[in-house]
C-alpha cells in the first residue's frame, strides 16, 4: 500500500511539473536573447576555426555585393572564409563585442560594431540578420578596414 501511495505521489508531482513547466515557458526567448545566442555561436565558431559551424549561423539566402569582399551568396562566403583561414585571417583572433548595439525592426536586425582583431590589424564588422522560420540568421555582413 505504501509503495502504491509513493508511486501515486510521484506521478502526481510529475503531472504538476509538466503542466507547470508548460505554463511558465511562454513564447520563448526574446529576439534580443535569440540574436545574442546566435552571435555567441558565431563567435565560438570563429575562435575554434570551425567553418561548418560558422556557416550554420548564416542564412541560405546570404548575399553581399559590397566592395569589401566577394561573397555574392553563401557559397561565395564559404570560399571567402576558407581563403581567409588559409591566409591566417582566423589566427589569434580577438573579438570585441562589448560595445555592439543590436537594432531590431520588422524582422531584421543590425549588429554593430564588432571589432575583429588579429596580429595584422583590426576590422570592424556590421552583421545584418533576418528572422526566418528557423530563427535569426545572418543574411549580410559589412566589413570596414579590409
Structure explained in plain terms:
This protein is an alpha+beta fold and 146 residues long. It has one domain: Roll (Nuclear Transport Factor 2, Chain: A). It is built from four helices and five strands; from the N terminus they run ααααβββββ. The chain has helices at residues 2-25, 31-48, 51-55, 74-86, and strands at residues 94-96, 101-105, 108-118, 121-132, 135-144. Strands 1, 2, 3, 4 and 5 form a five-stranded antiparallel beta sheet that branches. A hairpin with a 2-residue loop joins β4 (121-132) and β5. 18% of the residues are buried.
User: Based on CA inertia axes, which overall geometry fits?
Assistant: globular
- Kindly give the count of domains: 1
Number of helices: 4
What gap, in angstroms, lies between the N and C termini? 75 Å
Mean pLDDT: 84
Amino acid at each position: 500500500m505504501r509503495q502504491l501511495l509513493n508511486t501515486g505521489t510521484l506521478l502526481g508531482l510529475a503531472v504538476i511539473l509538466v503542466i507547470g513547466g508548460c505554463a511558465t515557458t511562454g513564447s520563448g526567448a526574446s529576439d534580443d536573447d535569440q540574436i545574442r545566442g546566435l552571435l555567441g555561436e558565431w563567435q565560438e565558431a570563429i575562435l575554434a576555426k570551425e567553418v561548418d559551424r560558422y556557416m550554420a549561423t548564416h542564412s541560405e539566402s546570404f548575399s553581399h555585393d559590397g566592395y569589401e569582399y566577394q561573397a555574392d551568396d553563401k557559397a561565395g562566403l564559404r570560399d571567402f572564409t576558407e581563403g581567409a583561414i588559409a591566409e591566417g585571417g582566423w589566427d589569434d583572433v580577438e573579438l570585441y563585442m562589448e560595445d555592439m548595439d543590436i537594432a531590431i525592426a520588422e524582422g531584421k536586425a543590425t549588429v554593430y560594431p564588432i571589432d575583429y582583431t588579429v596580429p595584422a590589424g583590426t576590422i570592424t564588422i556590421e552583421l545584418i540578420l533576418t528572422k526566418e522560420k528557423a530563427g535569426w540568421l545572418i543574411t549580410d555582413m559589412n566589413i570596414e578596414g579590409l
